[in-house]
Specification:
This protein is α+β, with helices and mostly antiparallel strands. The protein folds into 2 domains: about 120 residues, Lipocalin (Beta Barrel), CATH 2.40.128; about 230 residues, no CATH class. Helix content is about 15%, strand content about 40%. A 9-stranded antiparallel sheet has the order 4-3-2-1-9-8-7-6-5, covered by helices on one side. The protein has a 4-stranded antiparallel sheet with strand order 10-14-12-11. The chain has a 4-stranded mixed sheet with strand order 13-21-15-19. The N terminus is likely disordered.
């Protein structure tokens, strides 16, 4: 009788777990209200894979009908966790009948986001996805047909480089050093001989390619290289030098990375928040470029041997040297035990990779000649 009772209890527990997983399957919808901007209606379709694991596809219907695939969906009792590394987002909530109460995290901090189960009568219409952007021919050797270079407005916030859906490129608050770093994928310590103004003078640039479509990563960088030579009269030579660097390697336990489902020829998405790094459709070599682009104090060398493209996010607690200039540090969590680890530990725990200091030969650009940009 005792064994039978144990069996019945086990069956009850299994049945409860199965019912919880079944209850989460369906269409859920909720409204996200961020600190700025309009509210966004979100739809999540949760289904079950052949192996009984859960699958989530999300839609931000006020921003178009493009599907956003989750890399992982777990339901532990009533606790739901969903990861969206392709957009650097995650959701955590608690299931209670036909509602889910939780928070959405993407960028600086979490925002409340609650869902209710949709029925045929209440389901929002998901618009058709936008047509895919036109991709520039892979064998094209583009240059900027038109490029406007203007001094940045003093005190203007923000900094970045963006490629638009029509293939145009814009920069905000970019110095000559920033442009050289981007064009040749370098750390500042790999640039020598720059004039006194090459860090202090900032520019806003808009460039239109002479080929139709969005260029790939190589083509975008090549266009910036041509811009530097044509408009800044940049002349340089390359020397190989052994420098102190950070090397990225794979832990013995193997990488913890999700292969990207994006078009492999599309541009990578590399983003940085106050306490997170986001990579979409990016290689580890491109992740190394993100790390050395103002986060780490040495060149970063990819020694993993990994060549696939991945979607992932790294959540970490930056030290003072890794803070984003001009932005306040993120507020500390209510419980210090909930604070994410430092960058090096976070990369090990979350990606299965290791960043360690070593020495290695790297290319160094020595500037022989450069001038302030020519007039438009």
């Amino acid at each position: 009788m005792k064994n039978l009772a144990v069996s019945l209890l086990t069956l009850a527990a299994l049945s409860g777990g199965t019912l919880s997983a079944q209850n989460i399957v369906g269409t859920w919808q909720g409204t996200l209200q961020g600190p700025q901007g309009p509210a966004l209606r979100l739809v999540m379709k949760i289904s079950r894979n052949a192996d009984e694991s859960l699958k989530t596809v999300s839609y931000s219907i006020d921003q178009g009908g493009a599907p956003i695939n989750a890399s992982k969906t777990t339901l532990d009792g009533a606790a739901l966790k969903i990861a969206f590394p392709s957009i650097g987002g995650s959701y955590e909530g608690k299931l209670a009948g036909d509602s889910i109460t939780g928070t959405w995290t993407q960028g600086p901090g979490p925002a409340p986001l609650n869902f209710v189960r949709a029925t045929d009568a209440t389901a929002w219409t998901i618009p058709p996805p936008p047509p895919p952007p036109k991709i520039m021919a892979a064998d094209a050797d583009p240059a900027f047909e038109v490029a406007t270079i203007k001094p940045s407005k003093p005190g203007a916030p923000g900094k970045g480089l963006r490629v638009g859906p029509n293939g145009s490129m814009t920069t905000l608050n970019y110095s000559l050093r920033d442009l050289i770093q981007f064009a040749y994928r370098l750390h500042p310590k790999q640039i020598e001989g720059g004039p006194s103004w090459y860090e202090s003078d900032l520019y806003d640039i808009t460039g239109k390619p002479d080929h139709e479509g969005i260029g790939n990563d190589r083509q975008i960088r090549a266009m910036v290289q041509k811009l530097l030579k044509d408009r800044f009269q940049l002349v340089y030579h390359i020397e190989k030098k052994e420098l102190s660097v950070y090397a990225i390697t794979v832990l013995k336990t193997g990488p913890k990375l999700t292969k990207s489902e994006a078009n492999p020829v599309s541009l990578p998405g590399l983003g940085r928040g106050p306490n997170n790094l986001n990579v979409r459709n990016g290689t580890i070599a491109e992740f190394a470029s993100l790390l050395q682009g103002g986060i780490l104090d040495k060149p970063v060398v990819d020694q993993t041997g990994l060549t696939d493209r991945y979607d992932f996010q790294v959540k970490y607690t930056p030290d003072a040297s890794q803070a984003i200039p001009g932005l306040p540090a993120p507020p500390p969590p209510a419980d210090p035990a909930d604070a994410p680890p430092d960058l090096f530990t976070a990369v090990q725990q979350q990606l299965g990779l290791k960043i360690e200091s070593t020495k290695a030969p790297v290319d160094v650009i020595v500037i022989d000649k450069v001038s302030k940009p020519s007039e438009d």
